[in-house]
Amino acid sequence: MAAFRTLDDLDVKGKRVLVRADLNVPVKDGVVGDTLRIDRQAPTIRELAEKGARVIVLSHFDRPKGKVVPSMSLKPIAAPLAKAIGRPVAFGDDTASLKDGEVQLMENMRFHPGEEANDPAFAKRIAALGDIFVNDAFSAAHRAHATTEGIAHLLPSAAGRSMEQELTHLEKALGDPQRPVMAVVGGAKVSTKIALLENLVKKVETLVIGGAMANTFLAAEGIEVGRSLVERDHIETAQRVIHMATESGCAVILPVDVVVAKEFKADAHHRTVDVHGVGKDEMILDVGHKSIEEFARRLIATRTLVWNGPLGAFETRPFDHGTVAAAKLVGDATKAGDLLSVAGGGDTVAALNHAHVADDFSYVSTAGGAFLEWLEGQELPGVAALAASKGR
């Protein structure tokens, strides 16, 4: 991973610092429902303000598609942000009266068509408001937008604390990891994670596949999976991934036993069977105890783990058992100092929170698409721009 500057490299007192944050949080009836992303961005904004910077916060919210949509205003975010940083936050686009140590949140950048188009003129206009650019929005770093990529070429730039932490852990996880490395990949569809799987089998010693996507891999090995969700048009894809893994010396671990039911609903009648014992009228909805035992056995020798996607239908009990059990094993190994564990992706974060182990992992990314693209081995425009920043 290319080097990048951090807040430690900046002299910000009296300077106008543009901070690209990701404040795209759930809002209903003007009330913020989940402040996790705000809390992640707060340390950078607070530190800059405490150092005497004039902090101008840039963010997007939802998808207004270049038009002003009042319901997508960032105004409701100002108060929760102020609470998170412990100081007032002004709101609006006129930053002329901003003083040292003060913070101002500008309106939704996506109200401007030049934002998503990465229009040079718009980037220049926003850059003119500041002396320094700090990007703290890793979750938007896979977008080449004016305030995620364009501005970094116009001003001396650096990574904020959240971005720095994210990049540091990602580098430790796959860039230059302590080996052996295990990747856990779950979720519903193989089709959405082809590039991810093909990249991981070249980088890790063990690839654990769970969730409904494991059904497609089981089918690829000639195993009957009843009424389970299977992507029949991607059976050859699964076979190709297995072949690539064999050539790379990566062990692909599929479930050896599964939890099945005839209907998918909470507390449905269910049973645990060998993968070869799935009835024609049954659906695979979770991994079984023997699969978790095999996971635990493999985990003992693992030193670095990357996790993306649940192992079963964790939102519906009792089909959350496999994901919860595996997550607790990872959390325990991490707390014991035996493992570096990095997880990310929307369903993954929800699953780890459900298991009450998110805080036990080394790092849990709040990024969705950016985390996935990084796992796929893609270059992220927002990160690349920081590394090439003017003023380095």
- Overall structural class, as computed from helix and strand content, comes to alpha/beta
Helix content: 25-40%
Within the largest sheet, what's the order of strands? 5-6-4-1-7-8
Largest sheet: 6 strands, parallel
| CATH class category name of the largest domain | Alpha Beta
Measure the end-to-end span: 16 Å
Low-confidence stretches: none
DSSP strand content? 15-25%
Number of strands: 17
Q: What general outline do the C-alpha atoms trace? A: elongated
The overall number of domains is: 2
**CATH homologous superfamily grouping of the largest domain:** Phosphoglycerate kinase, N-terminal domain
CATH architecture of the largest domain: 3-Layer(aba) Sandwich
State Rg.
23 Å
Average predicted confidence as pLDDT = 94
Give the helix tally: 14
Q: Tell me the CATH topology of the largest domain.
A: Rossmann fold
